[in-house]
């Protein structure tokens, strides 16, 4: 995998809205945080447009992202927010110049569309808090984003959850994934990912328990779960019952659908739709080491993966 260059003081970062509408006021504090890191935010001309649910028409959102992908002075693109909309423009984007000079794409939730699509271009991306969420993000989440952007090696120590399907040995593999609903929606498309021998991360928000089961069965039936090294489960936020009780918890549903496989499953990774949304480098090789009380997740460092 190709690792985009890490940032340094004074670098320009593009600010783009590819999904739900957002106002300047909602991202103003986030812009100040980026400036405090000595970065220079460059806002897309259509970033605060409103077209019904969306931050501008498909064409306006497409133009902003395309311009930032092509601009070699922009060293990273940080998305304002998620929601829905990135999938509507993904097939019209031209990644030719981006592939020649990759830059970090930073976001989560709906931005999983880009994480998955760009993974197939053999380029790493950064699953992390977006601009709108920065003011309410936990200090650890902001620190992890800054560390990831500036090249500090990421290591996480996660308390053991009693629901874990615990492995006894260290596992290594390339990390892929993102929002489960988006991964489900991309299944079978050009943006779909190959999960063979990889470590799958997923998180989600505001889904019914039976929706969770349906999505996991879809991934299972398409062999996305067959040859994994491990699963990391992030925040499953506001997962809810329907009118009739489903009869199982989200933990139980996940464990049931992977019961046929022998890879480990680790719950409650601090990442997803919550304030403690810590950064993950998707496409990067990681090592998961279990312990009686916690698991350690280590990302391989820049020198091993940095592109020329």
UniProtKB/TrEMBL annotation:
Q: One biological-process term from Gene Ontology?
A: proteolysis
Matching entries from InterPro entries are given as:
Carboxypeptidase_A_C_sf, Class_I_gatase-like, LdcA_N, Peptidase_S66_N, Peptidase_S66C, S66_fam
Q: Where is the LD-carboxypeptidase C-terminal domain?
A: 172-288
Q: Which Pfam families match?
A: Peptidase_S66, Peptidase_S66C
SUPFAM superfamilies per record? Class I glutamine amidotransferase-like (SSF52317), LD-carboxypeptidase A C-terminal domain-like (SSF141986)
The LD-carboxypeptidase N-terminal domain is annotated at 13-128
Active-site residues (renumbered) = 109 (nucleophile), 203 (charge relay system), 273 (charge relay system)
Which family, according to UniProt? Belongs to the peptidase S66 family.
Protein's name according to its UniProt entry: LD-carboxypeptidase
* Species this protein is from: Flavobacterium geliluteum
